[in-house]
Structures are given as C-alpha cells and as structure tokens.
Design goal:
By secondary structure, this protein is an alpha/beta fold. The protein has 2 domains: 84 residues, 3-Layer(aba) Sandwich (Rossmann fold), CATH 3.40.50.20; 110 residues, 3 Solenoid (UDP N-Acetylglucosamine Acyltransferase, domain 1). The protein is 14% helix and 28% strand. It contains 2 helices and 23 strands. Strands 5-8-11-14-17-20-22-23 form an 8-stranded mixed beta sheet, covered by helices on one side. It has a 6-stranded parallel beta sheet with strand order 6-9-12-15-18-21, with no helix packed on it. Strand 1, helix 1 and strand 2 form a beta-alpha-beta unit. The structure holds coenzyme A.
Length: 222
C-alpha cells in the first residue's frame, strides 16, 4: 500500500526554518513524503529569503486538523512559547524531521516535532524528547538523554549517558563528557568542554567550562 503524502507547514521564518525547508526537500528527493504548504510565523508580514509563502500565524492551523507542523525556531524558549500558542488553538500533530544522511542506531527514540540535521550520529539507546533540535554533524553517544525543547548547535559532541534537561542550549562544537548532567534552561557556550555537572538556568563557557551567568528560575515563561 502506498503511504499517504503528509501536508506540512514549517513554523518560523528565519535561518533554521529555511534549513528545515531544505531538509524536507532532501527527504522528498529520497521518497515523496511531504506536501509542503508554506511557512507560519507570528509576524505575518515577514518573508523568508527563499520563499514568500508565509501563510499566517498559529491561528491559520485551526480547522485544518490534518496539516502537520514543525516548529523550526532555533531558540528553545521561543519553541516552547509557539508550541503553547499552537496548542491554544488546535491539536494538530507535530512532525519529526530526520535528514536522510543522519545515522540513527538501535533503540534510539525521537520525540514528536524534533529535527535531526544532516550528518548527525545517534549511536544506540539515545532518547530525544519533543521539539528538540540536533544540528548538523552533532554526535550523541550511547544512552544520552535529551529532554524536550533542547537545542544542540552544529558539531557538538555529547558523550555516553549524558543527560540534558528541558530547554537547555548547547553551543556549536561544545563537548560534554560522559555521564555529566546539564540543568534545565542552561546554556553551554560554543566550544565549551563540560567536565562537571551544570546546574539549571546558568551559562557556562570555556575549557573546562565555568559559570559566567545565571538567570532567574522560570525566565523562559516570560
Ligand atoms: C555563551 C554565550 C551564550 C554567551 O553570550 P553572552 O551572554 O552574550 O556573553 P558575552 O558575549 O557578553 O561574553 C561574556 C564573557 O564570556 C566570554 N565568552 C562568551 N562566549 C564564550 C565562549 N563560547 N567561549 C569562551 N568564552 C566566551 C566572553 O569573552 C566574555 O568574557 P569577558 O567578560 O572576560 O570579556 C555565547 O557567547 C555563545 O557561545 N553562544 C553559542 C552560539 C552558538 O553556538 N550558536 C550556534 C548557532 S547555529
């Protein structure tokens, strides 16, 4: 039986949204999977650089229960905010996108609405929550656990059994050594090497990573 083509919209109009549009095309080249309808954004007068298909804001989805949506916004707190806006008007399914060149090993799980970019490697037993971004060439090793709304920038190295709590943001080329824990809504700077657990709501940078800032608990809801 032929599988049904999925009607898809991308929420966002910035760089990550364009990258996800590209990813959708790459999936379709391998196997026709999506009927891409256009982009949604809260600023409907915006135009993405490669298309003018801004269909509307989150309310565009109401009354269209079959259309799936992926929230392609690089900022973790903004993805949470948009997910809540969408849920305030509809229950449409969130689409997971996995680039054809990503390697996904045995016993890995990837939550709804998550995005896995080109050249990423998830070895085995890796668990990703919902609305997670794993950007290009990142590797996640055995039993790494990544909760909802985490953002991982290009080329990060997440070693075995690391856990990254909700909303944390891991910078480009950061390394987190095995078994370490990153607290919710914390930021790991580009190029940092994390060798100790990181608490919630802080920013760490450098090698070895050290704390340079702290935010109030719950900041992401404002
Ligand atoms: C960590 C980060 C969020 C800090 O941003 P910020 O809060 O605006 O901090 P500032 O730029 O004011 O820098 C504060 C201090 O930390 C240092 N610093 C900032 N980022 C650093 C990094 N990645 N590595 C080492 N030191 C860093 C600065 O040099 C500065 O030091 P100083 O006080 O001695 O002058 C940011 O620099 C960063 O690395 N972001 C990740 C970006 C990324 O990976 N993007 C991927 C997009 S796909």
């Amino acid at each position: 039986m032929e599988s049904e083509i999925i009607d898809l919209v991308i929420f966002g109009a910035g760089g990550h949204a364009r990258e996800m549009h590209d990813l959708v095309k790459a999936i379709n080249q391998q196997k026709p999977t999506f009927n891409f309808l256009g982009f949604l954004d809260q600023s409907t007068n915006l135009k993405t650089k490669d298309t003018d298909l801004i269909l509307g804001d989150h309310t565009w989805l109401s009354g269209k229960p079959k259309v799936r949506v992926v929230i392609a916004i690089g900022n973790s707190a903004s993805r949470l905010h948009v997910r809540n806006l969408i849920r305030s008007v509809c229950n449409n399914e969130f689409q997971t996108l996995i680039h054809p060149t990503a390697y996904i090993g045995e016993n890995c799980k990837i939550g709804d609405g998550s995005m896995i970019s080109a050249g990423t490697v998830l070895t085995c037993g890796v668990m990703l929550g919902e609305h997670v971004i794993v950007n290009v060439r990142t590797s996640l090793s055995h039993e790494a656990l990544v909760e909802d709304f985490v953002t991982i920038a290009p080329n990060a190295t997440i070693c075995g059994a690391v856990s990254i709590a909700t909303g944390a943001d891991i910078g480009a080329s950061a390394t987190i050594i095995q078994l370490k824990k990153i607290g919710a809504w914390s930021i790991v700077g580009a190029g940092a090497v994390v060798i100790k657990d990181v608490v919630e709501n802080v920013t760490v940078v450098g090698n070895p990573a050290r704390q340079i800032a702290e935010r109030k608990s719950g900041w992401q809801n404002n």
